[in-house]
UniProtKB/TrEMBL annotation:
Matching InterPro entries: 3'-5'_exonuclease_dom, piRNA_biogenesis_EXD1, RNaseH-like_sf, RNaseH_sf
SUPFAM superfamilies, per database record: Ribonuclease H-like
GO CC, any one term: PET complex
Entry protein name: 3'-5' exonuclease domain-containing protein
Biological process per Gene Ontology, one example term: piRNA processing
Annotated source species: Patiria miniata (Bat star)
Domain of life: Eukaryota
A GO term for molecular function: nucleic acid binding
Sequence ranges assigned to domain 3'-5' exonuclease in this UniProt record: 10-215
Amino acid sequence: MASNNQDPCYDLVDQAADIKPALAKLREHGVPGSPSLAVDCEGETLSRKGVLSIVSVATESHTYLFDVKKLGAKVFDEGLKELLEDPGREKLMFDCRADSDCLWHLCKVRLTNVVDLQLMQMIYQETHPILLATGSASRAQLVKNFQPKRHNFLFCLEQYVKDDQLIKAKAEGKPKMEQAGVWLQRPLDGQLLSYAAADVQGFFPLYRALKPGIGGSSGAARLQVASQRFLDYYRSLAVRTYDKFEKNCFLPWRLLPPYAHATYAEEVTCFGCKRRFPREDFLPFHVKRGNPNCPVCRKMYAQK
């Protein structure tokens, strides 16, 4: 099913006969110098314990929404798994953690070679602080060791892309997204499909807007390392907690390295997020007491 001309254009793939033709289009060469694919997932409680409904995959010229709930494993067996796992195809995503966790634990699809645009925006923001209405940078951004909050995709569309059609599709779909079970209903609501299409279609212009400001090859190398960490952030956990220490608005501690090959000693386990960091990252009396928390988890403890 194709969308109408007034919404972000897409094709809904919900028939088995349409899977291979759609994948063939997605395998065609993209724009030179740009990632070849944009990928996003939608579902109910998107994670290993949830239900995957839609996998959206786009090039600069084609957008396909694969109805995984209807097609089942066949959509992956016919080639979508191979496409998503292809290490030779760079894929744009935005906060890939839940998508990666869901695809691996529910579908045995291991995403590779992802450029995470949420992390890209955070690197960009290091040298291009977001201005307040007064025209000055947020005071918090100027504080040493400030741990930034992650911005959502709609914010990034409004701040950097300024595409009215994509912003409208995201804004209109948001109230429906907040309703439980909407991605499990069939037929799928047209506003939800436009919302899903706007995500992947907006990834390409956002990438182009941010790329000049991330510090060239050194910034790209940092982004590559951090994106891989984001892919594994939930996916690699033996058990998930789904609590505020695992899921919150802050960039996880030490996830974005100061340079690509930076390492750190894993000496102490954080009581909150269960990740290991150098002893110097913790307050000595917390370590002695047996409940050490990294700087981000200390923030979360402070938020009652």
